[in-house]
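User: For my dataset I need records formatted as: sequence, then structure tokens, nothing else. Please produce one.
Assistant:
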Amino acid sequence: MLKAKKTIKWISLTLGGMALAILAIGVTANIVSPPSGYSSQTTSLVRGIKIVSEVHQDRMPIVTLTGATITDAPLQEVQSMAESGNREAQMILGALYWQGIGVSINGINFVPTDLSRSLHWYQKAAQQGAPEAHYYIGRAFEMGEGVSEDKQAARSWYEKGARLNHAPSISKIGYFINKGIGGLKANPVESATWFRRAAEMGDAIAQANYGVMLYHGIGVHQNLEQAVVWIRRSAEQGEAHGQFLLGNAYEHGEGVEKSMEQAISWYTEAENSGSAQAEKRLAELNDQTLASAN
């Protein structure tokens, strides 16, 4: 049994709208009660799991680690819970094995990357109706990660997630219809309907995509002002493409009053979020400024 004097160390996982953290500690008093809707069985995993609500739009499990010292006791307990059928524990193992957290921390192979094992646990969670699990399996088939690429299988898994009202899955169906992939016929009107549904649920990528369709009048009547409303919602959630699009709207004064100051500000936000388009546009604007100064 772990001793109470052990330092608390966190492994944070973001699972597309649900953040989970594992505590390497043996003190029951430090367990935070999960929000409503989670079983008392999850709460009973002392030294184990803390579940909090957090909106995040990353499309695969993102695992970050803070702290240099960890113990493998929590993993053993999560593994036991997962094998006993606990859905949340199965989701955690799926995320951990997908990215391989702590492979080289102090020489300890905490969880090696193992996509097959990750998908095994996601499938277990999916069998119990975990919406996020359907999405992650769908993305694996879409990208050919851990399995052979199969767009129709991906579509099937996304449709299952969509039936469970999972916004990223709904957004993906909109994307598949937009591109005419996965056995679906391209249909901009239907695509816009799916994007709007996910956008209204708060999905940042869907908000950006629906904004683009409004901006160009694809599948919907063109409405620049409404396009900017949806793009701004995406940008304010930290979505790189939404931030770039908002910068572009400000630069050209389309749907919003023209402002190069705001344009550069949003391009910078987008660049910091990883947008190559924003990085390129900022470089172009900088070159133009230097050229005009000479």
